[in-house]
Amino acid sequence: MEHPLKKKNIINVLESLIAESHQPDQKLKILFVAVEASPYASVGGFASVVAFLTKELKKRGHDVRIFMPKFGFLDEEKYKTKMVCEGLKVPTDDEDKEFLVCNVKTTTVGDVQTYFLENQEYYELRANVYSYSDDPTRWALLSRGCLEFIKTGDFVPNIIHCHDWHTGIVANYLKTVYKKDPILRDIASVFTIHNLAIQGIQDMNNFSEMDFDDGKSPVASLFDPTLNKQNFMKRGIIYSDVVNTVSKTDTLIEKNYDSNSTDKRVYNKLTLQKEFDLPQDENVMLLGFVGRLDWQKGVDLMIKTLDYVLSDFDVQFVQVGGGDAGLADMLRGLQEKHPGKVGIHTHLNFTLSRLLFAGCDAILYPSRFEPCGIVQLEAMRYGAIPVVRDVGGLSDTVVGFNSTSGEGTGFVFKNFSEFALLGQIVRAIEIFKNKPLWKKVQRNAMKQDFSWSYSAREYERLYERTLSIQKV
């Protein structure tokens, strides 16, 4: 007869598999509109964001393309561009010069198709990408040119994804000038802010109060000096269906830091110890677990092994996450047996989870099996070193640390046994005592770049929310 607890755990495992292998309900058509995209033009960091994110979204089955200016330095022979739209008339809203005539050319690199808006005066005859007095005109032309190109029917996206102030007015145009257009009116918009400090307002020192842009007036003519005083960033925020930032500061932790300032993590560690009513001591190794209390995750193995560790070593352990009631009882038993060393929170808590990542020295993840796993990726990004079993996605993403070569990002064991896990925890404790060596493994972990696959999944969720919002 099958044990009922085992059946319940199998159900939990299946639910986990479904959640972690989530795919969006539909394959989307997405058009990225940006001034820069590698390898064609790369001045700032967001050129790489555009390139890598579109590539990853393409891998996940979406029809994602890029729309950008065709700068004069673009080597057309190298990239084998071809004409897709000749003589595109882009409205200027100026009485004397009603249209600017452009072409649209295209090429494909790495399976991602890119469209280039071609205009001699505003793009091809310029030596640089930025720093011209008429930059607002150049980017307004790009924004409006993009929408006029979509109207030709060559590629009609579900979502237009704009980047930084340069293309902030795409959503402004969509929600005003083109709100009744039969092709454009149903397109949703996402606006990603890469640098909030640069908002597209020119010569602010000479502004008067009368020049303040409330974002509600029509976008000025491409040749009107008022265009230089309109805040493209603000308009992107106001009119886009969804706005996000690409490099978010984590306001849920005590102190922010990066791979070059890991010493600041101690503030988060002390805060975490205080949160769980543990003695505040930066020299005590703090182990943690974030996630579902589940048989699949090897939580039972972790608890049994920690009983030995807490008895013989000066370490602490904290946990966040709900799930199986039996495993929660085991954690409470561990806490009672080792007072002052164990803190538990057997319920889901997003805020506390982030503090664990930022404050724990190591995160335990001894799964029986693991299709992918996100916790170890988040832990490494925060400098919490993963102790994981050599299985599935954990094996793919965590490299065992070699104390001789200084290579590796965590501690890995093979056999699903208390002895194997104990060995790696003890090894982590000993290396933790060697501060230079510990900082080395922390830097290795924090510099790992799994962000594009992870970001692509996060953007899929963002796009789904965008479409649902846009339909309301």
UniProtKB/TrEMBL annotation:
The gene is glgA. Pfam families: Glyco_transf_5 (PF08323), Glycos_transf_1 (PF00534). It catalyses: [(1->4)-alpha-D-glucosyl](n) + ADP-alpha-D-glucose = [(1->4)-alpha-D-glucosyl](n+1) + ADP + H(+). Residues 29-249 form the Starch synthase catalytic domain. Belongs to the glycosyltransferase 1 family. Bacterial/plant glycogen synthase subfamily. Its EC number is 2.4.1.21. The keyword DNA-binding does not apply. CDD domains: GT5_Glycogen_synthase_DULL1-like. It is an enzyme of class 2 (transferase). It comes from candidate division WWE3 bacterium GW2011_GWA2_46_9. GO terms for biological process: glycogen biosynthetic process. This is Glycogen synthase. The keyword Glycosyltransferase applies. Gene3D superfamilies: Glycogen Phosphorylase B. Keywords: Glycogen biosynthesis, Glycosyltransferase, Transferase. Synthesizes alpha-1,4-glucan chains using ADP-glucose.
